[in-house]
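Sample 3 of the quickstart, ligand beta-D-ribofuranose:
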Amino acid sequence: MDRPIPVVLDCDPGHDDAIAILLAVQSPRIDLRAVTTTFGNCAVEDATRNALRVLELAGAPQVPVAVGAAGPLTGAAELGNYVHGRSGLDGPDLPEPVTRPVTQSAVDLMGEVLTAAEEPVTLVATGPITNVARLLQGAPGVRDRIREVIFMGGSTERGNHTPTAEFNAYSDPEALEVVLEAGVRPRMVGLNLTHQALATADVVDRLRAMDHRLGRVAAGWMGFFGSSYRQVWQFDSPPVHDPCTLAALIDPHLVRWQEAFVAVETAGRWTRGTTVVDLFGRLGRPANAEVAMTLDVRGYWELVLGSIDALGRQERPGEASA
Ligand code: BDR
Ligand code: CA
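Result:
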C-alpha cells in the first residue's frame, strides 16, 4: 500500500468538520500530524474545545491541536452559530476535554510540521482559510514544503451565507485570495460538490443503528445540523461538506476535478466572498486551481459510514455503554 499522506487539518468544528476529523483519524491513508483551529462556525475558543473533544471521542488525544485565527485578515468575524448552535457543535452532550492545545499558535505549529516532515505535507482547510494565508504571508519559503492545499469553500454556482458567497470564502476572502495566488496547488471543494453529499434519512438511520457511542453521537450531530438546514435553507437533508476534502484524498476515484481559473471577489457591493470559477475559459486566463465537480455519492457514504463504524468499534474502556 502507498505511504500515508501527511496532513494538517485546519478547521472550525462544526458538525461537518467533526466528521472530517473522524475520517482523518481513522483512515490508514492519512497521517494526521496536527489539527489547527480557526474562527468560523463559532469563536476560535469554541472551535478549539470542540476539536479537542472530537479527537478524544475518536481515541486520538495525542494529535496536537493549536489555536488559530480569531478573525479574518481584515474586518470583523461573522460567525456561523446560526447553523452549528451556541457551542459550534450543538446536539449530543460531550464531556469537557481533558487535553489542552499546544502552546504554539496554529501558524507556528503548521510551520513546524512542514519543516519537520520528510516529504511535502497536504494542508486541508475546512473553515475560513486565514491560518494558511498567514502562514504563506509570514514564511513564503514554506510553499515548497506544501504538497497541495485542499479546501472546502466557494462554489461554481451560488452561495449559502449570502445569495452568491459560500460561508468559508465569505468569512475571509482576502485570505482565500492569498492562497489562490501563492502557487501552492489549490484544490477547491465548493458547494457545487458538497451539496451532492446529503446526509439523507437512510444515512442517519445507518449511523443510529451502529452499536456504539460514536455512531449515536454522529447521528445526533446530523440531527442538529439537519434541523438548521431545514430552517435556514429548506433542505430536506443537510450537506456534509467538509469530509469531502478528506474523502478525495483517501480515495481519489470519488471526486472528478476540473482545472480552471478561480478568483474570489473582495470588493463587490453585493458579492463579497463570491468565488468566480471560469469553467469555460471565458476570461482567457491560465488555470490556477483544481475544482471538484462531481462526487461518487454512494462511494462517499460507504467511506464515511465505514470509517465511523470502524472507529466506533475500537471500544475504549468506560465508553461501551455511554
Ligand atoms: C462550510 O461552512 C460551515 O458551515 C461548514 O462547516 C463548512 O465548512 C459550508 O459552507
Ligand atoms: Ca467547516
